[in-house]
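// run 5 | inverse folding | seed 20
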């Protein structure tokens, strides 16, 4: 009996060992290299000196330019997350509760955007919001405006593009959570005297919160690390923190500063996950897919 118990206790460890080593090799070790490289000193374009100095970290900690980028990134990420939650709940609820026999077709339409590069999806907004785009053409034709309205290359177009790109992630998370709710609960609540909106508020909404929370966390983190959408749809002042990393690594060839900014973003987004775990609990993520 003792040998069998010991054997059973070792099985989870043996099963988790490959994943553990994969995380070490693909995540921990590369991030350790990035952290070490952040202490190097950049001398010239793509010329770095092996050193242990805190110049890069001091610049990030004291320069208001980086502070503004951090706050703007957090603000836009939060706004995009709230908009995605508000816009994503209704279609997720419709797909989960519909009596349509071919529900798989609705899910196919939902994941269809994933088959198209998000860069192409982002570029499509130029043809919609641009001065010669579809919306301005419609407004001018209808006589609503005398000349095209500037709707591109600003914070509005950046947030619109981010919501468009990440909305399916929110819908899928909420849908999975709604799909796991017993369909008899709302009718039972109405049988006991609750109105339809009361049944939704007291039964369905609380039970779907794990999916909503998981989708919100995912959209927030993905938005915080975005740089392509602001690069395409934003103006010179509509950058996110990811754009600073891109500029440091690709444009300025200052790889130590790029490493410093990358690790800073990792810490910021990691702090969001820790706060989420503190108030919501990471077990809510497993409930969303349970």
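// decoded
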């Amino acid at each position: 009996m003792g040998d069998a118990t010991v054997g059973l206790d070792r099985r989870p460890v043996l099963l988790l060992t490959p994943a553990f080593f994969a995380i070490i090799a693909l995540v921990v070790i590369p991030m350790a290299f990035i952290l070490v490289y952040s202490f190097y000193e950049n001398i010239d374009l793509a010329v770095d000196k092996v050193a242990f100095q805190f110049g890069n970290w001091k610049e990030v900690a004291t320069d208001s330019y980086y502070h503004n980028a951090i706050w703007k990134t957090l603000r836009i990420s939060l706004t995009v997350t709230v908009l995605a939650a508000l816009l994503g709940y209704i279609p997720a609820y419709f797909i989960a509760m519909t009596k349509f026999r071919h529900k798989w077709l609705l899910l196919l339409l939902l994941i269809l955007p994933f088959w198209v590069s998000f860069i192409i999806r982002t570029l499509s907004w130029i043809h919609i919001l641009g001065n010669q785009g579809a919306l301005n053409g419609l407004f001018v034709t209808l006589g609503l405006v005398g000349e095209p309205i500037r709707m591109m290359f600003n914070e509005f177009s950046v947030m619109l593009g981010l919501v468009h790109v990440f909305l399916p992630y929110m819908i899928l998370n909420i849908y999975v959570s709604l799909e796991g709710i017993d369909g008899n609960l709302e009718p039972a609540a109405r049988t006991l005297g609750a109105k339809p909106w009361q049944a939704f508020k007291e039964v369905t909404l609380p039970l779907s919160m794990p999916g909503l929370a998981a989708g919100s966390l995912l959209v927030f983190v993905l938005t915080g690390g975005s740089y392509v959408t602001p690069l395409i749809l934003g103006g010179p002042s509509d950058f996110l923190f990811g754009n600073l990393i891109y500029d440091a690594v690709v444009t300025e060839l200052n790889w130590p500063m790029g490493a410093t900014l990358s690790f800073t973003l990792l810490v910021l987004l990691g702090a969001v996950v820790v706060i989420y775990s503190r108030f919501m609990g990471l077990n809510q993520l497993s409930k969303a897919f349970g």
